[in-house]
Design brief:
Oligomer: heterodimer
Structural class of chain B: mainly alpha
CATH architecture of the largest domain in chain B: Orthogonal Bundle
CATH class of the largest domain in chain A: Alpha Beta
Helix content of chain A: 10-25%
Number of helices of chain B: 22
Number of helices of chain A: 8
Number of domains of chain B: 2
Bound molecules: adenosine-5'-diphosphate, magnesium ion
Mean pLDDT of chain A: 90
Number of strands of chain B: 2
Number of strands of chain A: 20
Low-confidence stretches of chain B: 1-14
Helix content of chain B: over 70%
CATH architecture of the largest domain in chain A: 3-Layer(aba) Sandwich
Order of helices and strands of chain A: EEEHEEEHHHEHEHEEHHEEEEEEEEEE
Distance between the termini of chain A: 36 Å
Strand content of chain A: 35-45%
Largest sheet of chain B: 2 strands, antiparallel
Largest interface: A-B, 36 and 28 residues
Shape of chain B: globular
Strand order of the largest sheet of chain A: 6-7-8-3-9-10
Structural class of chain A: alpha+beta
Strand content of chain B: under 5%
CATH topology of the largest domain in chain A: Rossmann fold
């Protein structure tokens, strides 16, 4: 990974008529990086991707690709390659003709053309399918053709808009790994749009979280999950118990004291916020079942998920939920039963509002 | 963050620019639509007030209301249209119910018979009625021999019967398709709630088909109102608007009075057109397909079947009469088989003219229509609404009015175009261009925009994208539009009859003339050939439909 950004978005704004869909979006993408845009439906992910591809000219700001502004260029003049959600394969052309399409426009010589098409189809493991029509391919295969059709043109940035959402769950995981593999092998720069948080965390180098067209956070997946910038990110990426409270030092030991309930108090380590109060993030897997604990709550609801059991409990009047991982050989608690829980020592505190 | 946003100055970009080529195309098409649809209709209006021949005057309208024969024409046209429409609806509803609720070989045959009149020239039933009930008709003579009573089909009621048979398929088609697409679970629900079948049909089925029935009734009414060929052949000299307008132009060169009649023809069409385009459009009942239709109760079914059978038999007998009369000397009098009626050399020449004219008209209508449809759906071209409106209005204008308008504009200086093949092509093409336009728009709505975006993402410019991606995908729609325009042009009469010359006569007006002169054998033979050609086109259309897997 070189340090020079290949793609820069500078203060991008986009409105459709009166409605502003993107506000002040700034982003540097490094060569060979995979960045995911994630956010709820309507948050502007596709619009931002399409600004980069040139399909929606932005109403403010600049897109810089390879050091040059590409604002004035139509999509066909940009060296970006887009893979559409529905693949957009030309139904009247064979796989070969689809992949050849862009090369023909570039007037690439016959020998080189054949070689590049062969290589691109091989990269997506579709050699031998040249003469098929798109309608004769499965969803996953169509997806691969769509990727090959872009790859063959060696775009500087590959843009993928929810590319996996039309595939079934198993295939989705396979294609996700496939895209990651291609990226590593060919050192591709990729922007990947999804609304699936698991997909975003597992595939990306960095994740950009959007809400109402405003960037909420841009960070590595682990940072997004463990240190969300605000309540929205905490809730949108993964599940979260958010608890307001204060930090107090007694006898050299720092304690977290929940705001609502006197009894909910436990020791913590590490830095505490300067004003000694804040909202802490308790992911359900961070809270552990611990019969010995002095925090004894009551089970309100238990939901069995196979690899874990999610318990909704009430503890000193607070509602919390926790995941009991690896439930083998453990008794399943029923509604109304007592459950002891213990809290982690290292907490992430959300920045104050 | 919001403060920062406000500081950035935001240059607002204009809407996406349209490429010069598409802009030029849309202006070109708009100019043609103006010249060959709007201008002729406006010319009829202007002429009806005497402008262009003296000054502005209401004199011709005054004459229209003071001269009993003109008023009689208006009355007859409205009365015949009303009666035909009501009877057609009374037959088409049970016919459609029967066909959609049975899935037998017979019901499918009935459906084919119900649609059969579409493939024939519009005056085919007048011809058949003359063969059966004319002065020397098969049935008339038979009755005269047995009872001594002379009957004659010529006159008002002859026109009504011919209209019922001729316009039946239009209403039937619309009502049937709405009944076919109706969600059967609604009827099931009604019966589940305790309603009998009769009640269910009255309270659920018919109201759901109500919009389609209303639409069908209105369209059939304006078509019958503007009917030209049946009054001419079988009207027996009674006054009707369209045929009188034609006679005013060709017989008396009285273009002003013809224009006044034209105004009375075009106004109802225009109102119905507005009504169905802007009011009925939103009232289509949302329906779902799939699921078996509710079978009919045996008693209800028997009644529907009875009505359908009478109608189907009637249509079949008419066609059989025309075919038979094409192959015998003089039907009913000398029933010797012969091919003499087919050896009409001028007839074959006119048929060839029809093929040529219809071919180029279809090429133009489908090509330009679909191109404009593409631009309407995808490009930010100017005057979209206006061009679409004009093209669709072109479909609704009575042929007689278009014909008079064309005469007014193109007959004299500086054009001198009447009698030319060119003007015939333009007339047929622009009367049908709305079909291609609608086909283009609806096909583009089915095609995902991402195909074109993908093409441009891969480096293709807008024209290349149109050629390599859009055009191939529009080909089935083009073919369908082409075949449809070709078929309807082959049998159309009421407009081109104003524009032909002895050298550039066409088959359909020629047959009309033969029928008018009671040259029944030759008229039947030519009609038979036309029907065969049009049926072949229908077959082609079905083939395209099947090959492309889309309904067109
Ligand atoms: N062509 C358009 N015209 C007007 N509004 C649009 C257009 N495309 C998107 N929008 C609006 O922009 C917002 C963001 O849309 P989009 O980027 O598609 O969201 P996402 O991909 O995150 O679901 C939505 O409110 C949507 O309605
Ligand atoms: Mg989207």
């Amino acid at each position: 990974m070189s340090e020079e950004p290949i793609l820069q978005l500078k203060q991008i704004e986009k409105s459709f008529g009166e409605t502003t869909v993107l506000r002040d979006i700034t982003l540097d993408v490094k060569q060979g990086e995979l960045i995911t845009f994630i956010g709820p439906s309507g948050s502007g992910k596709s619009t931002l991707l399409r600004v980069v591809g040139g399909f929606h000219p932005q109403t403010g700001g600049t897109v810089v690709l390879g050091g040059k502004s590409i604002d004035a260029l139509p999509p066909e003049k940009r060296s970006t390659g887009m893979v559409f959600q529905n693949y957009a394969l030309f139904p009247h052309m064979s796989v070969y003709d689809n992949v050849e399409y862009g090369l023909k426009i570039q007037k690439v010589g016959k020998a080189e053309k054949d070689e590049r098409i062969r290589e691109a189809l091989k990269q997506v493991q579709l050699d031998g399918y040249e003469d098929r029509k798109p309608s004769e391919l499965s969803g996953g295969q169509q997806q691969r053709v769509a990727i090959a059709r872009c790859l063959v043109l060696k775009p500087e940035v590959l843009l993928l808009d929810e590319p996996l959402s039309n595939l079934d769950a198993n295939l989705r995981v396979i294609m996700r790994d496939e895209i990651r593999r291609l990226k590593e092998e060919l050192n591709l720069t990729i922007i990947f749009v999804t609304h699936d948080q698991e997909e975003a965390l597992s595939i990306s180098d960095r994740v950009l979280v959007l809400k109402d067209g405003i960037v909420q956070q841009l960070d590595a997946p682990s940072v997004i999950y463990q240190h969300p910038a605000n309540e929205f990110v905490a809730n949108f990426v993964g599940h979260a118990n958010l608890m307001e409270g204060t930090f107090k030092v007694e006898d050299g030991q720092t304690f977290f004291q929940a705001k609502k309930e006197e009894g909910l108090r436990f020791p913590v380590e590490g830095e505490t916020p300067s004003n000694d109060s804040g909202t802490v993030l308790l992911r359900p897997e961070m809270i552990e079942r611990d019969p010995e604990s002095r925090h004894q709550g009551t089970v309100e609801k238990a939901v069995y998920h196979g690899n874990y059991v999610r318990y909704y409990i009430s503890l000193y009047g607070e509602s919390l939920f926790l995941d009991d991982n690896n439930p083998f050989h453990k008794s399943l608690l029923q509604k109304g039963e007592k459950v002891g829980v213990s809290f982690p020592k290292h907490l992430h505190v959300l920045p104050g509002k | 963050m919001s403060e920062l946003t406000e500081q950035t100055s935001v240059p607002i970009k204009k809407k996406a620019k349209v490429e010069k080529g598409f802009l030029a195309a849309t202006w070109g098409i708009a100019a043609l639509l103006f010249a060959f649809i709007l201008a002729p209709v406006l010319a009829v209006f202007v002429q009806s007030f005497g402008i262009g021949n003296g000054g502005f005057t209401f004199e011709y309208y005054a004459r229209f209301f003071s001269n009993p024969s003109y008023f009689q024409a208006l009355f007859n046209s409205v009365a015949a249209g009303t009666v035909s429409t009501l009877i057609i609806l009374m037959i088409a509803i049970p016919f459609a119910l029967y066909v959609t609720r049975s899935n037998t070989y017979l019901s499918k045959t009935y459906r084919g018979i119900g649609l059969l009149p579409l493939v024939a020239p519009p005056f085919i039933f007048s011809l058949a009625l003359i063969i059966l009930f004319g002065r020397r008709g098969v049935v008339s003579q038979w009755i005269a021999d047995f009872t001594g009573i002379e009957i004659s089909i010529y006159g008002f009621w002859g026109v009504v019967i011919a209209q019922i048979l001729g316009y039946f398929p239009i209403a039937y088609m619309m009502i049937e398709s709405s009944m076919r697409n109706m969600n059967p679970s609604l009827e099931h629900a009604s019966q589940d709630l305790g309603a009998g079948q009769g009640r269910t049909i009255r309270k659920v089925t018919l109201p759901l088909a109500g919009t389609a029935i209303l639409k069908a009734g209105l369209i059939v009414f304006v078509m019958a109102l503007a009917d030209f060929s049946n009054p001419l052949i079988i009207g027996g000299g009674e006054n009707f608007l369209a045929s009188d307008a034609f006679l005013l132009v060709t017989g008396q060169q009285n273009l002003e009075m013809a224009a006044v009649l034209g105004v009375f023809l075009v106004l109802p069409s225009f109102l119905v057109f507005l009504f169905q385009t802007y009011i009925l459009k939103d009232h289509e009942v949302a329906t779902t397909t799939g699921g078996a239709n509710n079978p009919l109760h045996p008693k209800v079914k028997a009644a529907m079947f009875g009505v359908s059978t009478v109608m189907a038999l009637f249509i079949v007998v008419m066609f059989v009469m025309v075919v038979m009369s094409a192959f015998v000397q003089i039907i009913g009098i000398n029933n010797e088989l012969t091919l003499d009626h087919f050896s009409d050399t001028s007839g074959w020449g006119f048929l060839w003219n029809s093929v040529i004219v219809s071919f180029f008209a279809a090429l133009l209508a489908a090509g330009l229509g679909i191109l404009q449809g593409y631009m309407t759906a995808r490009k930010n071209v100017p005057m979209k609404k206006l061009t679409e409106f004009t093209a669709l209005f072109g479909l609704a204008i009575p042929g007689t009015v278009m014909g008079i308008g064309y005469v007014l504009i193109f007959n004299g200086a500086p054009f001198f175009l009447t009698g030319t093949i060119f003007l015939l092509v333009m007339n047929m093409a622009f009367r049908k261009i709305g079909v291609g336009l609608e086909a283009g728009i609806s096909k583009m709505q089915q095609l995902d925009v991402s195909l074109e975006e993908a093409s441009s993402d891969l480096g293709s410019g807008p024209y290349h994208t149109f050629r390599r991606v859009v055009a191939p995908l529009l080909t089935p729609a083009f073919m369908a539009g082409f075949v449809y325009t070709f078929m309807t042009s082959m049998v159309s009469v009421s407009s081109v009859i104003f524009l032909i010359s002895p050298g550039t006569n066409l088959a359909a007006p020629y047959i009309l003339n033969l029928a008018d002169q009671a040259a029944v054998g030759r008229a039947s033979a030519m009609s038979f050939i036309l029907i065969v050609i049009v049926l072949a086109c229908m077959g082609l259309l079905k083939l395209i439909e099947r090959r492309s897997g889309t309904s067109v």
